[in-house]
Amino acid sequence: MRKQNKLRIGVVGPMGSGKTSLVNFLSKKWNINIISENFNRNPFLEKYYDDPKRFSFSSQIWFYENRINQIKNFNKYKKAIVDNDLEGNKVFALAQYKTDFMKKDEYSLYQRITNLMDDINNYPKTEILLYTFAPYKIVVERIFERARDFELQKSEKEKKDFSNYIKVLCESFEEWYIKNNKSLNIFKIDSGKINYLRDKEIQNNLKKEIEDFAIKRNIKII
Fold first, then answer.
1. Tell me: the pLDDT tens digits for 55-102?
2. 58 vs 48: CA distance, rounded Å
């Protein structure tokens, strides 16, 4: 097995699919650091929920640039788990383009900027991607149960548009998984079927499955 001086594990998936819950319990099980998404610091996020067509591009660029800066500081960690990984950010942007939240020229600019960021920044690559999935109706229910004010304060039309965006987002992640499953080390987790939030036995079984998945790819987690 090859020596692994640094290990970066990425977590991706739609909002409400269980990314943060997965990250929290795995970080404790493996005793590794978490690189969290600073959504509370994004100055465009609440504005985006008020007017997604105006602030989609700004919000997504902020998330990507902030995430790269965090990952560039990865060297202070031996191992870390990233919630949400850069791959996930790109899928979010694609879904916003598909639902007309992001204009064609904005999405084209987003792709050019993020590709340039990837080229000029020498950040450590992700060894394993954990993809949390759930049917979009379950994801929507979880989002509204989570009750972040800026996600919930919507008219009926806005809620319908938002639900459609979540549906497209879930579909986009599935398309991303099918396209990249053979080229990236992606471990898919259906959080709609297994409850790893509180069930310790499920947590231990899932942890073991991920570790076995990594070993088969010559990657040592613990």
1. 999 999 999 999 888 887 766 778 889 999 999 999 999 999 999 999
2. 9
Contacts of residue 172, defined as CB under 8 A and 6 or more positions apart, other chains included, come to: 91, 94, 95, 98
Name residues whose C-beta falls within 8 Å of residue 128's C-beta, 6 or more positions apart in sequence: 9, 10, 185, 186, 187, 210, 213, 214, 217, 219, 221
Q: Which of 117-121, 170-174, 189-193 has the highest mean pLDDT?
A: 170-174
Q: Tell me the CATH number at 36.
A: 3.40.50.300
Enclosing domain of residue 25:
7-216
Is 53 a domain residue? yes
Beta bridge partners of 12: 131
156 is a domain residue: yes
Angle CA 217–25–89, to nearest 5: 65
CB atoms within 10 A of CB 86: 20
Strands of 45-153, DSSP E = 79-83, 128-133
The reported pTM is 0.90
